[in-house]
Queue: 2 jobs
Job 1
Amino acid sequence: MVKIGSTTIPTKIFLAPMAGCSDLSFRLIAREHGAKFCFFEMVDCNSITYGPKRKVRSILRTTEEDAPIAAQLLGRNPDAMLRGAKEILSIVKVSFLDINAACPAKKVIKKRAGSYLLKDPQELCGILKTLTAALPVPVTVKIRTGYDEPDIKGIAGLAKNCEKSGAKALFVHGRTRLQGYMGEVDYRAIKAVKESVNIPVFGSGNIFSLTLAKKMLDETGCDGILVARGALGNPWIIKQIEDFLFNGRLDPLIDFETKKNVLKKHLAYMERFKESTPSGKAGHMRKVMLWYLRGFPKASRIREKVSLVNSYEKMIELIGQLKNGGRGE
Ligand SMILES: Cc1cc2nc3c(=O)[nH]c(=O)nc-3n(C[C@H](O)[C@H](O)[C@H](O)COP(=O)(O)O)c2cc1C
């Protein structure tokens, strides 16, 4: 359990925001297997105000079961961010709203948003002050451990300033903007952030296993963790981490048939909920299939077959043909 502002969240293991991945289908499958708190994919504040409404509505698509949840906003200008935040709150109910100061994508940096805000603390704190003064929900920030170089002192100072500007929690990806998603996770920097503030701090980075989840908590003293790539094709991971951390229990390995059935259900949710062109939808489905099929026998031959299927029905048929041991091809 973690308290963010006055909101109590029933877990400290969150499913991370992942653009292009953490859509409604992904979250529903994760929740059915134990995730208790999720994020929507990030929303660009300008796309809410000026972009096609269809796209934002599709990102913010949700159901009764898909709660509690947080939204994340990308942008730079405090007024535009506030307009975007209000629009989000008019569409969905969220436990808190997060500001993205972590995205390393070139097109985002070009607009001086995402992790660029690490270089521009005044702007970041300006956004925070504007949002916290006007919104009825807690505001949080996702940061990285530095821009080009790790900067422990700098990031701890920035964290303190975020807290002073009204942030009610911090999510820290333990890599710099330059590292992207590769390389070592800087546990020392996350620990320094944790020690510099009095609000909850969540660690993110390489939560791929139960031991890496424990390592994040032990080495940083953080209040909670974000599970990101470790949950792709592996919706069981959050419950497994909780069982390991809190009950000392190692859950049995997920067998082949269970994986196949959950993949089928995941695709069925996508067929029902994903709003895209037929070819866009098939592309998303193929991506999801590959997440689950990692480590299957004869994975490279299966991947080849996956690349050729272009409809939901054919994908279900292909999954039905997969046999443990690689036969049935
Ligand atoms: C495909 C992808 C999309 C992501 N999108 C977002 C995003 O929209 N907002 C965000 O704050 N972080 C985003 N992240 C970062 C993750 O939330 C997480 O901090 C990062 O992947 C490190 O965790 P991991 O090493 O356990 O994957 C994304 C990561 C991936 C792989």
Job 2
Amino acid sequence: MHIIFETPRLILRRFTEADASLVLFLNSQHEVLKYLHERPLINEADAATIIRTVILPQYQNNLGRWAIHVKGTNEFIGWCGLKYRPEIDENDLGYRLLPSAWGKGYATEAAKHTLEYGFNELQLAVITGRAHIENIASQKVLEKIGMQFIKEEVVDDGPVKMYIAVS
Ligand SMILES: CC(C)(COP(=O)(O)OP(=O)(O)OC[C@H]1O[C@@H](n2cnc3c(N)ncnc32)[C@H](O)[C@@H]1OP(=O)(O)O)[C@@H](O)C(=O)NCCC(=O)NCCS
């Protein structure tokens, strides 16, 4: 298992092609996709394709979306991580948790340590984050880890708030 880092309650590790059932479970839930411009996954083959073509290629330069497990139980609760977006030359902080894990501060804990990892280990200068204007929980996570609101913009036809953190 390729562990990226641990937080007080969580372990973040790289996904592998063996994680199709976990990715399917997460990305087939409508509550999870409510504010995201994505279609639900329909089967494990679909999830395996996403892992192979979207998630694994992001692991260049130690970036990427990392699976989150709860220490002790090893329960999978979602992902958090940094994605390089070449079209806008930004390192983007993102997270996605199973509804059963919401409301426990896990997203904030994972995002805070991801920001620190990006600045301290990867030596990134700037990290950005975006949340749909109605996605208050996600905006709160970005604000609680100290990111600054910059502007509203439209991405994929959806209005979002953009946040930034500078090392
Ligand atoms: C965004 C997400 C990760 C947040 O998870 P979470 O478990 O609620 O996060 P946390 O517990 O760390 O903190 C969320 C904060 O928002 C608050 N919050 C949650 N829902 C809220 C709502 N509808 N209105 C106002 N505040 C809300 C919580 O109270 C908490 O703040 P607090 O610690 O001051 O009480 C989760 O909702 C999720 O995975 N959503 C689906 C995927 C997604 O939208 N990802 C983000 C894309 S930009």
